[in-house]
Amino acid sequence: MKGIFGNILEIDLSAGKSNEKELDEDVYKDFLGGYGLGVWYIYKNLKSGIDPLGPENIIGFIPGLFNGVNVPMAGRSMASSKSPLTGTWGDSNVGGFIGPELKRTGHDGIFIKGTSKEPIYIYIEKNVEILDAKDLWGKNALETENELRAKYPGSQVLSIGKPGENLSLISAIINDRGRALGRSGIGAVMGSKKLKAIVVKGTKNVEIHDKQRLREISNKMLEKMNPSKNRAATWWHKYGTIGGNEQSHISGDTPIKNWKGIGIRDFGIEKARAISGEKVIKDNVRSYGCAQCPVACGAIIKRETRFGLVEGHRLEYEGGGMLGGLLLNGDLDSIIYGFELANRYGYDVISLGEVIAFSMELYEMGKIKKDDLGFELNWGNGDSVIKMIEFLHKNDGIARILNQGVMRAARFFNVNEEIAIHVHGQELPAHDPKYLPSLATTYVSDPTPGRHTAGGIGFSEGGKITPIFPIDVEFEKIEKYSYSGKGKAHAIISNQTQVQNSLGFCIFSDSFSPLPYAELINALTGWEITNNDLLRTGERIQNLRHLFNIREGIKPKDFSLPKRAQGIPPHEEGPLKGITIDVDSLVKDYYNAMEWDMNTGMPSKKKIKELGLEEFIT
After folding, report:
1. C-alpha span between 437 and 590 (Å, rounded)
2. 336 SS3 class
3. CA dihedral sign of residues 355, 361, 367, 373
4. Fewest CB within 10 angstroms: 27, 140, 376, 588, which?
5. Quick count: other Cβ atoms within 10 Å of Cβ 2?
6. What is the pTM of this model?
């Protein structure tokens, strides 16, 4: 086989054994790599109803199909598992350099089940070794990675910190000293298996079908993505995701004061300017690009904050919003230091920020008191933000409850879930669907709920919709606050996103779309796949992710958008004045386009047959 190794690595921690399993090439043609391959494997090998934190759960680390072959902006990889945070299909996407290194182990995916009795880490080079991690247990993710990379020069490391060890459902898995597999609570899955880290040092490369053709296509893409020639690339290279931070806090994009505030009124222009992209990039030491990326939208910074020195990855938009406007916090020192702590400790910064906002509102209500924390927890207090992160990290007292996410904490504190901003347990990111309504469709319709990067037309709304790869569809401009006629476009872009993720492309490659996915695949593998074939592949992957949830007994009505995110009641002033989203119409339109039943969620029999998914229906 060309472009793939044709096998996956299975590791059973209960038995302390591993084995290599060969796969038929048709599996790759049907599901590609990344979480496409992940959902195929996990669906077939995981029984429904299992405890996500039990030994039966499987966690997969799967490189994208283009990892390790120098296709530009295609160095990202995926982790997949049943999510302990939501009980649904769980996945998370990461950059850094782990994807290509996973690929160079000679396996197209690594799938781990079982539970070790004692803390261990896995080392994969020419062989698979399961090694003692007692001395690493209790260390933060950064300390763990530094120690293991020093021990195994040239390796890449995936590791958890104490939140993962403590089975915090808002924990993350960290790579490259600050690139996070943050969503779905999968850090807790590693912790439940007593798996502190995975160390990989690849020695193999896939055989490429047509190296010259692959190089030609990649070189054309490099020209298109050159920061010195392309305006979008220039912007991404200079600012990364933080460039629009100031504007987003004022426009209504960034949620304010746990989703009940208004940026222009409650946060204000002065605070927004204090945490702007221009302010953030002043700390740049050097640019940072993930594997295979010519744009390099990240940076390594050095900043002496009043809390301590930060020498690490530059603040990203989600960290800026979730530790900024969501908390009414305009203190850049605390935002940057808090973002660094999330990376060091191994927290999902999105969920972490929402837990702090939820806690601030509980403090305001008198449900949490100073005696519970040892400090005051007031809106806009940067010192309190850092103290709260440290408090959660210690995992004492009510921190144990808060570390399980806002849905479970709201039940414990017996408060109206209106103040707990989540969809089926997953905290919402720093993008308000009242500003981009089709994000609501993504938040409540994707099999991993509450995700802004899961695909759809949200970020194109009100403008031109550009396909991710070429297809024979003409998109019409859809009005931003129209709630009908969007389902087909949303379904197409969502299905295309499944291909994007499975190949290993960064979502920011959308700035250069449409990209020649089919040509790249054929040059790599020798297959004769078309763009229409790829669209069908994306639809197949999305349907199987969705079927995973149906098998778990989850119905469409189980995913609902919080009232504050809908605009109930609507804002009385500001840029989102009077807006209430018609979520039901958006979701119904999307479900109709996907041919999913609105009551059961089940795809039509015709669609199941069309996609060749009959074997997955029991």
Report:
1. 13
2. helix
3. positive
4. 376
5. 15
6. 0.97
